[in-house]
Amino acid sequence: MSEETFDLNALEPIFSEFSAQRGALIPVLQRAQELYGYLPGSVLNTISERMHVPLSQVYGVATFYAQFYLTRRGRNIVRQCDGTACHVRGAAKIIRSVENDLGIKAGQTTPDYRVTYEIVYCLGSCGLAPVASVNSEVVGKLVPEKMVEITRSMK
């Protein structure tokens, strides 16, 4: 599978903005991810070259921090909580149902890039357990059927 082609010239304003700052790798990666939606290899290579930072260090930072993604993500991001309160109240059944319906495992994105489905271990809404964050909106008191309905309705 070949990687998409990206307009790497779009990185120029980012490099200009941070050119005077030493050690600006993290903000450059953040801005690049905002631009492309994730950090493809060609973008990481360009950042390495332009910032004179070894590629291994760029990858090291990008893989260390959970905020960075090296693969394309879906248009919709669903984060299912499986923390203690949610787990006790049936999160595992919700996870299995959504995985079966979407045809992916948690942590993956549907082939049409419609949904990225992730597991998290606390959304801070234990009183509404089981909960999920659907495009940054917390949805609580979930049951498998309701969560499947939500993911099916996503465009």
Characterization of the model:
With about 160 residues, the chain is of the alpha+beta class. The longest helix has 12 residues. The protein has a five-stranded mixed sheet, with helices on one face.
Produce the secondary structure layout:
Elements: H1 12-18, H2 25-36, H3 41-51, H4 55-64, E1 76-81, H5 84-88, H6 91-102, E2 108-109, E3 115-120, E4 132-134, E5 137-139, H7 144-152
Parallel strand pairs: 1-3
Antiparallel strand pairs: 1-4, 2-3, 4-5
Helix pairs in contact: 2-3, 3-4, 6-7
Question: Summary?
Answer:
This protein has about 160 residues and is an alpha+beta fold. The protein has seven helices and five strands; from the N terminus they run H-H-H-H-E-H-H-E-E-E-E-H.
H/E order of the elements? HHHHEHHEEEEH
CATH topology group of the largest domain = Glutaredoxin
What is the count of DSSP helices, taking H or I runs of 4+ residues? 7
Classification by helices and strands: alpha+beta
How many strands? 5
Taking the alpha carbons of the first and last residues, their distance comes to 25 Å
The CATH homologous superfamily name of the largest domain equals: Glutaredoxin
Give me the side-by-side strand order of the main sheet.
2-3-1-4-5
Portion in beta strands: 5-15%
